[in-house]
Amino acid sequence: MRSRIKEIASNFNIAKSNYNFSLIKKGNINVTYCLTGKKKYILQKINDQIFKEPEKLIDNIKKVTEASKEKGLTLVNSKKGKPFFKSEKGEYWRLYHFIEGKTYNSIKDSKKGRELAFEAGKIFGKFQKRTRNIPLSKLNIVIPNFQCPFTRYDEFLEALKKDVKKRAKKCHKEIDFFLRKREIRQDYEKIAEKLPKRVVHNDTKINNVIFSTDRKAKAVIDLDVVMPDFVINDVGDLLRSSACTAKEDEKDLSKVNFSENLYREILKGYLSIGKDFLTKEEIETLPYSVRLITCNLGMRFLTDYLNGDRYFAINPKRKDHNLERSKVQKKLLEEIEKKEEKLEKIYGELCRVV
């Protein structure tokens, strides 16, 4: 495998060096390596089972990174002058300059955690502000209806109907829970009519932010599903991933809670930038966003579990990995709904300041 990775890397415009390669195990979709030599790079094989047209995906990334004034992800061209390399096997590979810094899979409700939450909210606000002038018609639709709850619900029902791995009997509680969440889908239908579409990241997990040693957000990474859509996608996913007190695949559900303090800091950071460009309707729908995305992701994990784990990568030692992930989202959504009045109050206080 080492010689194979070395051969792939040699097709990019980088200085000759005796590079060391290490597999980065974070991430649920693509295969990622860190190259260390005279310089450091990130080498990725794009999952073409998920992304059917990788060149369109890379085209989006190039347009978005070129439009952003902040130094962040930078693609390295292949020796053929393209921002990717297609192997003889038809695999698509890309190479990024390495960005020094630190990432977090989760953050705690502490002084440090609240600082990170504010910074994460702020940098995603900057991302949307700096890309707002890209004509939406210039961006490719990589995965149609990516965060649409109606599409995700239909996929869930189809997976449940087929039950190809005969797993439905192991997750009746989770199935019943997500079947009952009709009001979230109904709310989306009303809200979507009022909102403009913008360039959105669509995968704003806290681990897609690189932080400096002094806890400042340096860069946003993982732009694979950047597309035109609604800002509630980005805000909701950031709140879901950052204000949750447990890992996304935590087995001990007693650890899963939703931090009001982190919720406040994320929104405060985001609105410190977003107030300059968001519409009144967009700001009004932000509290709903976390319920939408948490419900969507819980259904997506459960759908993938029923389908035999075809989308999200799993730990081979955890056969029910996607079911465990879905259980975390279910518990998190329950906690969010319990705190709905408190969260509305926090949101109201922030809006008065903005």
Can I get a quick summary?
The protein is of the alpha+beta class.
How many DSSP E strands? 10
Beta-strand portion reads 5-15%
- Largest sheet data: 6 strands, antiparallel
What is the CATH superfamily classification of the largest domain?
Answer: Aminoglycoside phosphotransferase (APH), C-terminal lobe
Kindly report how far apart the N and C termini lie.
Answer: 53 Å
Helical proportion? 40-55%
Q: Treating each run of at least 4 consecutive H or I residues as one helix, how many helices?
A: 12
The H-and-E topology, N to C, reads as HEEEHEEEHHHHEEEEHHHHHH
Average pLDDT works out at 94
| Number of separate structural domains | 2
* Rg (C-alpha, Å): 20 Å
* CATH level 1 name of the largest domain: Alpha Beta
CATH architecture descriptor of the largest domain: Alpha-Beta Complex
Q: What characteristic shape results from the CA principal axes?
A: globular
Explain this structure.
- The chain has helices spanning about 1-10, 55-65, 110-130, 150-160, 170-180, 180-190, 230-240, 260-275, 280-285, 285-305, 320-340, 340-354, and strands at about 20-25, 30-35, 40-45, 75, 85, 90-95, 200, 210, 215-220, 225-230.
- The protein has about 350 residues and is an alpha+beta fold.
- The strands form three sheets. Strands 1, 2, 3, 4, 5 and 6 form a six-stranded antiparallel β-sheet that branches.
- Helix 3 packs antiparallel against helix 7 and helix 8 runs parallel beside helix 12.
- The model has no long low-confidence stretch (mean pLDDT about 95).
